[in-house]
Amino acid sequence: MAKVKIKLLDKISSPSDLKLLSLMELNYLADELRSDLISSVSKTGGHLGAGLGVVELTIALHYVFDAPKDKIIWDVGHQAYPHKMLTGRRNRMQSLRKEKGLSGFTNRAESKYDVFGAGHSSTSISAGLGMAVARDLKGENNTIISVIGDGAMSAGMAWEALNNLGSQNKKMIVILNDNDMSIAPAVGAVSSYLSKLISSKPLTSIRELAKQVASHLPTEIEKAAKRADELARTMMGGGTIFNNLGMYYVGPVDGHNVIDLVHLLKNLNNTSSNGPVLLHVVTEKGKGHPFGKDVKEKYHAVPKFDIITGEHKKSASKKKTYTKIFSDELIKQASQDDKILAVTAAMSSGTGLDKFFEEFPDRFFDVGIAEQHAVTFSAGLSLEGFKPFCTIYSTFLQRAYDQIIHDVAIQNLPVRFAIDRAGYVGADGATHQGSFDLAFLSCLPNFVVMAPSNEVELTHMIKTAASYNDGPIAFRYPRGECEGIETIPEAKKLKIGQGKLVLKSFDENKLGDIAFLSIGTRLSDTLGAANELNNLGYSASVADARFAKPIDKKLILELVKNHKILFVVEEASSGGFCSLVTSYLANLDLINSDLKVRSFTMPDMFIEHKTQEAQIIQAGLHKNHLVKQALPLLKNKKTLSIG
Prior knowledge:
Elements: H1 15-18, H2 23-44, H3 49-53, H4 55-64, E1 71-74, H5 81-89, H6 124-138, E2 144-149, H7 156-168, E3 173-178, H8 189-198, H9 201-205, H10 219-225, H11 241-244, E4 248-254, H12 258-271, E5 277-282, H13 322-336, E6 340-344, H14 353-359, E7 364-366, H15 371-383, E8 387-393, H16 394-397, H17 401-409, E9 416-420, H18 437-442, E10 448-450, H19 455-467, E11 473-476, E12 500-503, E13 512-519, H20 523-535, E14 540-544, E15 547-549, H21 553-562, E16 563-570, H22 577-587, E17 596-600, H23 612-619, H24 623-635
Parallel strand pairs: 1-2, 2-3, 3-5, 4-5, 6-7, 6-8, 8-9, 9-11, 10-11, 13-14, 13-16, 16-17
Antiparallel strand pairs: 10-15, 12-14
């Protein structure tokens, strides 16, 4: 896309400025906004494709409606960058996803125009309906607009909300942004249904408001629609599935014709007073992006890139990521065991399972944005003798907690949970941090829960999970680069519940001063802290727990028997591994004047977007903080209670 000269956009500092433009000027504004968005994200990285696809829709929404009195709710928030730029935040776009900068998602603390915080998918209709009911209870008359993508529409929560919205019959507009590609190509019957609907002339002809749209669908979309196997048919008496849920369905319409969108939204605002309306808008995700057409997923979320060539600015580091290690080892294990299957919820590339699909297409299952279904689907597979690796980001696994308990743990089914993005995740901020998995899994009967300290340990845990058939087993690993171990030995099966002593500073003749018991990738920080203390003349030991459940009681007792102080460290919320260890010691009456115990977990707060290292430092999980906390205890002989 050629560089566009910015004229109109410089005049827009709020939606009220936008309303001063003529309809014809909106087309020029769209070109400027798209060009400026590409320029901004090239410097920061971020979710580019979704925002590029809704430029015209965003302009039309703010041109027609009176935000923030009228509530515009963006599902997920990936597509909200143009919204931010039109609501007074354009001059801060280069701070996007940086410490003290703009959030990568909608954030209520950031702007009055962000009426509902986002980050996870499929929440906008539920939130919007809540606001609509509250509006009517207060006797007000504003409009609620929820914008949701076709990928997010695959989640059960969206359909629960639509069903409730139809029965409530509230004034509300739902805009279905159909770009036929969520993070991965759209999956399932819903996406297929929308594709068929695009080519359905009989359905288009019965929509009065759709007749007001002057332009025809773009040739590109018409060609895409011809791939559908059959034309859409009227359902249950002449309507679409949305009609039968009690909504007035309009569309599909061209989401890149800003003038037609303005006319249509004005009419819909009047029509919605009679009940809920669903507007089906067809857009091109990544429209105007600087990459080639064959890139597909790569412009969903992009690192910094060259604005001229579109080439990503790669890190100089040659270290592999934990996701890459997981992908490679799972493929290796699957080549030796044809019972191993891979399941994900619309995150095939993010979890590394796209490579698994290339090797074993018949053993890979992407169920769409449906984590609850993914878990119970995996439970069904395990019942029939297969070994499903249910691979989901920690932050998204939270959405399936009831299924984890009811459909897996209670029935003691050997589902393998590979939990990516555990711990702090950097620029994606609080909504995407993997904070709670150790706590909410370790409290469940029948579960085995592991966390590797490095890439070698991760391969061992994949092997262990593949071999374990006595019940559910989970392992969690972080976002980002590994330790950089050059030679990774052959994976071996670990003994369940057995940790290991990594650094020993005691013997039968002399007690050590302090022991660090770490789980997961904070082991490097605990080793750094221990080495620094040893250099200061103290004696410090380090153990890698490996297992959050069952805990290695023998190892723990060895540490407390031979040290005066125990620091327990995990990059997760309280209530997890540290709690299990301290509870075990307390029940044995071992926490007393002879033993000082401290727990180091994520603090009781949500840490916003910044680098992963900065988040770890703020959380007090960095080696310098561990040393700072240890020194007063080592120097002070008086008894201190558990912290």
